[in-house]
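Standup notes
- DV: blocked on the single-chain target, sequence here:
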Amino acid sequence: MKNGNCLRIFAIILALFIASSIPNVAFSQTSEVALDDQQTWPMFHYDVAHTGYTRNAAPRTNNLLWRFQTGGKIDSSPAVVDGRVFIASYDTFVYCLNASTGEEIWKYQTGNWFFFASPTVWENRVFVGSGDQFVYCLDAEKGSLVWRFKTEWEITSSPVIVDNKLYIGSADSYMYCLDVFTGDQIWKYKTEGFLSGPPSFSNGKIFIGGWDPGFKFYCLDADDGSLIWSYKTQGVITGSAAVANGKVFIGQHSVPGRIFCLDENTGSLVWDYPLVLAVINSPAVANGKVFAGSWDKYVYALDENTGSLVWRFETDGPVLSSPVIADGMIFAGSDDKFLYAIDEVTGTLVWKYQTGLNVKSSPAIVDGRLYVGSEDGYLYCFGPGQGILPQDYTDVSAFRFYSTVAASIVAVGVIGAYLYVRIKNKRAKVNRQTATS
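- DV (later): unblocked, structure below
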């Protein structure tokens, strides 16, 4: 066989080998979703009652549309309003991003980190509490400061806004009610321990729990801050309550852990469900079921009326992310680095995605897209459409592709050099024979 034919055959074989090794770089998983008319997620856990439930469509696959890197880990939960995403980071900044592309629109720096404190968006204003002890009101368009209010200690709580009043707890043990336009204090109520979780609102009442040494959970009058009732639990309450159908659902941070269902009007116990380990996140409630995660690595689904177990889903790490409910699925992150989508009825896995570190952020879902933060410092966006190559530390297709290309280039170089030397030597030999003859 002639050398030219050998080279052509080798080139064809090499091209076929490389083509068969190329991964689907576009990561073309997509989901068909029917869009709902509720195109907003304005605060932690969606609404003032913190049910964590929306009728918005949600992604059916782990198709990653974009991710945005901040300068610190993200335990805060995003708010999504008017095509923009608002998120707070450990790097002391509040970020405003384009919800479609992930491009930064503005960022505002406070004096300290953001832990679980999450932004609330209302009337073109962004409200958030910081570790520097201040509650901030920012212009949603420009990111400029409108006002700020100082408490006496760090804030990990998230604001709730009802009837032009802003409600927020502080680690100074006070529950504050502020004028939403000016930041002036309307009233404050002193509890017996620092307040870490967001307050919840329902029917003129504020519900709040904290690191109270007396293990009290409080129901306050939203107008004047007076105590309506309190309930003595068996441990501290670090998350928020979910309020629905005349009932209040709270998780207990203790060993053993516990999920309580209380009567909204009287504070009397309806039922409680014991767990092996603590619940530090906030329950979600919809469709007759209550959902919560635990340090024991499980996401639980309980019957709303009886507290009986419907199903439980096991992850590989503590579930500190507050679950949310959308489109027949439960979404929650875990300290095993994964975000999970779980079938609401059966408790089986729909999809999952691995980030670089633990996922404590609670997701936000708008327009068929899901937004969630990770302690790797990224805000992730999943949904239908043209995805990007996943960066989930389990997919090695890109490495295989580039290593294959590199190996192929080396092989081409070695074989080409070998053939070049062989052909050159053969021609020299032919020339010598011709000269001799």
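- Follow-up: Confidence is low (pLDDT under 50) at residues 1-37, 391-424, 426-437.
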